[in-house]
Amino acid sequence: MFDPVEEKLIISRDVVVDEEETWDWTAEAKKNYTFYPFTMDESDDEPDTATPVTSPPSHREPASPEGESSESPRERPQKYRRLEEIYEETTAIEGDELTLYCHFIDSEPVDVEEAMKDEKWKRAMDEEIGAIEKNKTWELVSLPKNQKPIGVKWVFKTKKNAKGEVVRHKERLVVKGYSQRPGIDYNEVFAPVARMESVRMVITLAAQNGWKIHQMDVKSAFLNGYLEEDIYVEQPPGYIVEGQEDKVLKLKNALYGLKQAPRVWNSRIDKYFQQNGFSKSPHEHALYFKVQG
After folding, report:
1. Dihedral angle, C-alpha 258, 262, 263, 265, nearest 10 °
2. pTM of the entire structure?
């Protein structure tokens, strides 16, 4: 909200609306202008006689036809400085600043070529491809007619602990889902998400009754969802099969980045729970319970 008296922006969750007061749109707003004096140094326009100036190679523009006037703005020629001048005007980096910059050495790679040169990232990529192939996520096939493969990319992330120490180099092969076409590459994308009220209720019941709470993190969860559509993706960069570069990968299971990946994963785990005697809450589709005894 904007306070017209104090001329401040206020953020509040508790607001009382006064419907009797109205805004006077005819009143002129008070405008405050702040002027800062400055002086223009014209010494830059004068040639420097003490320092030799190296001009870039001249480039002649083609002559304009008669009758046409060139209205291009006047450009100041670029001034080249010697290394000695740059060193004199440069402030040396202190030891603590240099230590700070050293932390960026172990940052994430910007592309696959850089990651393949680093042994730790190469090992992490091999593990990701191994997990995908072990799960039989895809098969190498020829691209059918009237089909367009979806691109894939690698996403790199360095996981650190509370002390800032690197504990794991994570990478993920992600499908460029933004290029998927509705009705062709996917249909339904909705997947239920647990509400915070349900999480608090479970924790409260466990605290009152002395129950134990087990938290489980399903590694590569989305890779376990079965796809219903025929989806073809390009071979991952850095792992293209030699001699079969023209072939693509037909997905059997979902990959991260697909629009329907959350839904197909939820469909599979929902089927698993119900086959093992769990019932879904009619009010919270992410909550399952099982009565024993």
Report:
1. 110
2. 0.57
d(CA 205, CA 211): 8
- Residue found by looking up tokens 């602990």 in the block: 161
169 phi and psi angles, rounded to 5 deg: -105, 110
Structure tokens at 38: 């400055």
Two structure tokens written together for 40: 């223009």
The tens digit of pLDDT for each residue in 64-112 reads 444 444 444 555 666 677 877 887 788 777 766 666 666 656 577 878 8
Distance of alpha carbon 80 from alpha carbon 268, whole angstroms: 65
Q: Are 152 and 234 in contact (CB under 8 A)?
A: yes
DSSP classification of residue 135: T
Q: Where are the alpha helices (DSSP H) in the chain?
A: 83-89, 95-102, 112-117, 119-134, 196-209, 261-275
CB 261 within 8 A of CB 272: no
Query: What number of CA atoms fall less than 13 Å from residue 74's CA on the CB side?
Result: 2
Q: Report yes or no: 175 and 258 within 8 Å, Cβ to Cβ.
A: yes
Q: Which residue is it, tokens 């367009």?
A: 148
281: amino acid identity, one letter: S
Separation CA 206–CA 99 (nearest Å): 47
Query: Angle at Cα 70 formed by Cα 68 and Cα 75, nearest 5°?
Result: 175
> What is the rounded CA–CA span in Å between residue 289 and residue 216?
16
Q: How confident is the model at residue 138 (pLDDT cuts 50, 70, 90)?
A: very high
Question: Looking at the DSSP assignment, which residues form a beta bridge with residue 169?
Answer: 158
**Type of residue numbered 83:** L
How many other CB atoms are there within 10 angstroms of residue 191's CB atom?
17
> What's the pLDDT at 209?
95
- Tokens standing for residue 271: 């089927």
The radius of gyration of the chain's CA atoms, rounded to the nearest angstrom, is 32
